[in-house]
Amino acid sequence: MYKMHLLVCGGTGCRATQSKQIEENLRAELKAKGLENDAQVIITGCFGFCEKGPIVKILPDNTFYVGVESEDAAEIVEEHVLKGRRVERLLYTDPENKEHISDSKHMGFYQKQIRIALRNCGFIDPENIDEYIARDGYFALGKVLEMSQTEAIEIMKKSGLRGRGGGGFPTGLKWEIAYNNKADQKYVVCNADEGDPGAFMDRSILEGDPHSIIEAMTICGYCIGASKGLVYIRAEYPLAITRLQIALKQAREYGLIGKNILGRNFDFDIELRYGAGAFVCGEETALIHSMEGLRGEPTVKPPYPAESGYLGKPTNVNNVETFANVPVIFLKGHEWFSSIGTAKSKGTKVFAITGKINNVGLIEVPMGITLREVIYEVGGGIKDGKMFKAVQTGGPSGGCLTEKHLDTPIDYDSLLAVGSMMGSGGMIVMDEDDCMVSIARFYLEFILEESCGKCTPCRIGNKRLHEILKKITEGKGEPADIERLKALGNVIKDTSLCGLGQTAPNPVLSTISNFEDEYLAHVNEKRCPAGQCKALLKYEVDENLCTGCTLCFRNCPVGAITGERRQPHHVNQSLCIKCGVCLEKCKFNAILLT
Amino acid sequence: MDKIKSLDDLRKMKQAVQSQLNLRERGENSENYVQIKVAMATCGIAAGAREVMNAFLRKIEDDKILAIVTQTGCMGYCHSEPTVEVKKPGEEPIIFGHVDAKKADSIVDKYIKNGELLEGIIPVNYQTIV
At the topology level of CATH, where does A348-431 sit? Predict the structure, then answer.
């Protein structure tokens, strides 16, 4: 019998930093010491603390090792497994008091988190159905199959769960509509087409706990009267696909999906459908068309998929994270679930926090927590002690919020009220070095690439918005441009066909309303306050500090610097390409960036 | 593999696989369980700490005791190895010296189950910093 479990993170992030090698080395070291029957190595899903990956957690003594490298395996086995001594240098160091913390519960990153959707991520082996069952897996399905369909839907409605893909539509209501539409065949679709830049919530759930999605889809199938489920997943998520396929095979072998599930007169099975990674296919009508083999283009709603969806049949589409909450609602009760969160937003939300923040990673926090708590307590504050400038939520459809919004509670309605949105859970933090005009331009570039081109406002309108922004960042903007951006942005919002176009101007509009002075500086003074817009930068030599060492002269790739040895040098602005080499090379701080 | 054909089958399945995860679930909530720490430094191992640890593991499994068995480094009581620290939830830890497999059983039977003290207790002269 094993005395110790060594959990090694097998999420995509930690895999990329050689966690596979760590696993192999740990196994080899254990074998070499004859401990392979004492300590078990388990590959789990994502722990969330990606900033400090790869993570190795040891239980039962609850030791959390961070930044482990494959060479550390020998020391972990020799010291920890054999001799019971923690490897101090691999423990997390508290950034404030510099003390080592061995138990993840005492880390700021984990203290404010409540893990419902991520309950099994980083705890069980996602490729072993037994471990999911040991965590009450498939018991929610068992419970639901003893209820009537309407009873189960009622519980979903009372729980207050809302769609986690971004829209926030009440899930129970969605199921009820699909249930009420009569048809010979209905479908349950799991939307795993996660497309927001920097977002990886759904991928991590599928990689870390695929059975929770299978169970929830089966529950949904029973509730609405569907016998078929489809997971629409991007082909660029190979690990999630593999784990889902393994999980489906195991569930089928156990008879937990298939014919007469748990001895009841209910059949349900799930297939995978692969997407090519188009952002617009996250929109449910476009997603359905893509699954049908048609172009991934949205169509006007109504008809809603609940009436006429996949192959014209009633279809219920929910996002991965929404499904991940479902089994817990039935296990612990709707009262328990709705006791977490705010009046209108129940439960928790998973966020992928990235950008200029100390603890980049995957977090799950209760609704109603403030942005400040997430950024400064869970996220550990801004990198390198810089100033916070903005936080972007909701991906390309959301908006940028500033210092004055930091005490806004995170829930669907509060975020909308301040001009952003919940979205699917991407959260990008920006510091003083980020130029908000460039950020808006970046999101628009993403939209231009991802717009399907079907409707004119989105296809042409966003192109024009982008052109104006490009003009401004190149120092050719004129005062009327800002008004033009606002007017055009609002027209695109009002007239686009689907959610992609209707929300595409949000990053532009929200940066104008929150950072108008930055736009004005670009337009009126031809200056980029954050020093990011290359065309607006000017490299000059401070004649008092320049010693004439010729280092900049010798390193300038375009010969834009002139000057005699031991005499102050000069930058020829018409030749300068603003590469910044002179600034980097100068040892006397004599190059000024203005 | 037999199919799971009813909720009862699923319950049986869970019972059969539960022990795989006990160690992890208890470790995550260690403050709610009896913690048995076996000193496993070189001197402890030489004095037979490994057999003692195995004895505890067997005993808690057989008697279904809600406990966690872990190993620690040298506790400093080299005169009394193998030494074992037992901490019940909400109580001060107690250290037993000269523990062997037989004594491990009686620690579980007498102290953990009934709160009776045994011979060979070493006065605690340190503080644990969590």
Answer: Ubiquitin-like (UB roll) (3.10.20)
